[in-house]
């Protein structure tokens, strides 16, 4: 069943979410924000900066985007906001090491498989590799770039060999890299 066209409110929510992601994860300086060492910024400063750069956001809109985002991309605490993960700017999310489940999953597309087989999963322009706790989430992640391919990551074996894992507030598992030997590829080679 095909869903109907998005309402103006839904389109605005998506625009605000993308704006927040861009400026809280990648380019806070573009609108004059300075994130603290852990990626936090005062909500009032964010709203003022957005307004000054011709993208006014109300506090109600911000609260709605934080609460309604199905991926829980943002965290709010003590009058501050930050992106839960995915930063390309230098921040320390101050997440404790965590013991992962036996397997985690990574969604990608077929065009990337040769490089992944050779090099494993690397963080690219982010601070960590993002892994999903289930195949369904990994499938949605991979589908953003085309027909998804889901890789299984032997996180239990990685952990036993000393690889460090962290889990963000929204359930995304993070690790520095996944060597090829810990990956399970679907189908024939």
UniProtKB/TrEMBL annotation:
InterPro entries for this protein: Ptrans_KptA/Tpt1 (IPR002745), RNA_2'-PTrans_C (IPR042081), RNA_2'-PTrans_KptA (IPR022928), RNA_2'-PTrans_N (IPR042080)
Enzyme class: transferase
UniProt EC number: 2.7.1.-
Pfam families per record: PTS_2-RNA
GO molecular function term, any single one: transferase activity
Domain of life: Bacteria
Keyword line: NAD, Transferase
SUPFAM superfamilies assigned: ADP-ribosylation (SSF56399)
Family to which the UniProt record says this protein belongs: Belongs to the KptA/TPT1 family.
Function according to Swiss-Prot or TrEMBL: Removes the 2'-phosphate from RNA via an intermediate in which the phosphate is ADP-ribosylated by NAD followed by a presumed transesterification to release the RNA and generate ADP-ribose 1''-2''-cyclic phosphate (APPR>P). May function as an ADP-ribosylase.
NCBIfam families: PRK00819.1-4 (NF002014)
Official protein name in the record: Probable RNA 2'-phosphotransferase
Annotated source species: Streptomyces atriruber
